[in-house]
Amino acid sequence: MAPARGLGSASATLFSIISLVKAGSLKDIDHVVLFMQENRAFDHYFGTMAGVRGFSDANLQMNDGVPVWKQITDSSLTTAADYVNPWYINYLGGNWTEATQCMLTGTNSWYENHAAWNDGTNDHWAVDNSPYSIGFYKQQDIPIQWALADNFVVGDMYQEGVVAATNPNRVTWLSGSINAPGGPQTPSEGGNPYIDNNITPGCESGGFNCYPLKWKTVGEFYEDAGTTWQVFQDADNFDDNSYARFEQFQNAAPGSSLYSRGMKGLTLDTFYAQAANGTLPEVSYIVAPMELSEHPPYSPPRRRLAAVPGGPGRAQLAQVQQDGPHCLLRRDGRLVRPRRPVPLAKRHGRRMDPGPLRPGRLHLHRPGLPAALLHRLAVDAQRRRLHRAQRPQLANHVCREVAGRKGAQRHDRPDGAVAPQPHV
């Protein structure tokens, strides 16, 4: 089937695929596929969707009579307004979606996100993280995500496991814990708690963020129960397979079950093939490559949907591919957009060829948004660096936004496993 373009055709094609699969109860489910994407809030994607607890939430949190949508500003942002409301990212129309594909955002570290949470008032996202934190897309910007949400269950009150960065949340996903004090694990098992993207052996000052992690994971419980499971990932996995955070997987012998299923994994092409012929394990984990992770600046707009036919009685696949300019960060930290596709080896290696690249720029001229607030978008990265400098006990291992993106390269081990590297 030819790729379907546009909201209506994409939604119709996706619905025709998923409607082929019917189940009467949980007993009819043979395969569970787990797939986690990166750093996107519910309202950022689905805040304008009807019938969910989004921007029209009838039970909206109020802070002394002020709706939580009104995010506090300060004099470093603007003196023209006390609050900034959620704002539509692609307000300029036209080809603005191509610009916002390269959009940089705030950080997701423990410190900044807890400061934004502000002891439960949840109203410091503009001042303690970034005004981009409350920007949002509409249906026409992300039709594939909306088509999936329209045809499946939407978790509009689903919360991240930890108000923190990638690694603690993925570790929670794979083990149900970050080893917070008072839990079933002991301090000797790592973490205590594990709250940031630390992958340096040892603990932070104060005895937390201890690495590697050593407590029992979900995969090991599957082993005990005789449940088949498998991680599917390519060499570029954006360092998002957090089974690699655990010592027992790091030390697993090549050919062992933990090594083959959880550390090395099988390729995404193998997943597509097994899904098509009905041979997937009972539980599958998909770990996406960097550019398909949806982690800023790898944004979701301008996708195309292709239907991949399967055999009789087998579920078909919906394969989503990026359709638009790639967005990269050079080693010097400059945001760039290639004039022609850059080979994967050059994208992820130290010797990225700067020849076909040119600086990418975002010009914000949103009517009604104070100029000082817009200026803040350009300087808040420096402000975050100052925050980190004031926190020496966490400075080495939290908020690796710049370092992770500038050093986005793969370090593939000779034995075929993917060695870890940091990112936010």
Q: What features would you describe in this structure?
A:
The structure is a single chain. This protein is an alpha/beta fold and 424 residues long. It has a domain at 7-18 and 30-42 and 139-406. The protein has 14 helices and 14 strands. It has helices at residues 7-18, 42-46, 96-100, 110-117, 125-128, 143-151, 166-175, 218-225, 247-250, 257-264, 268-277, 344-348, 371-389, 401-406, and strands at 32-35, 62-63, 66-67, 71-72, 83-84, 87-88, 135-136, 229-232, 283-286, 303-308, 317-322, 328-329, 335-338, 357-359. The strands form six sheets. The chain has a three-stranded parallel beta sheet with strand order 1-9-8, sandwiched between helices.
Low-confidence stretches: 1-15, 301-424
Spatial shape: globular
- Trace the largest sheet across and list its strands: 1-9-8
- Largest beta-sheet characterization: 3 strands, parallel
Taking the alpha carbons of the first and last residues, their distance comes to 37 Å
- The value of Rg in angstroms is 22 Å
SS strand fraction:
5-15%
Number of contiguous helices: 14
* Secondary structure: helix percent: 25-40%
Order of helices and strands: HEHEEEEEHHHEHHHEHHHEEEEEHEHH
Mean pLDDT: 74
Which structural category do the helix and sheet elements fall into? alpha/beta
User: Count of DSSP E strands?
Assistant: 14
In summary, what is this structure?
This protein is α/β, with parallel strands linked by helices and 424 residues long.
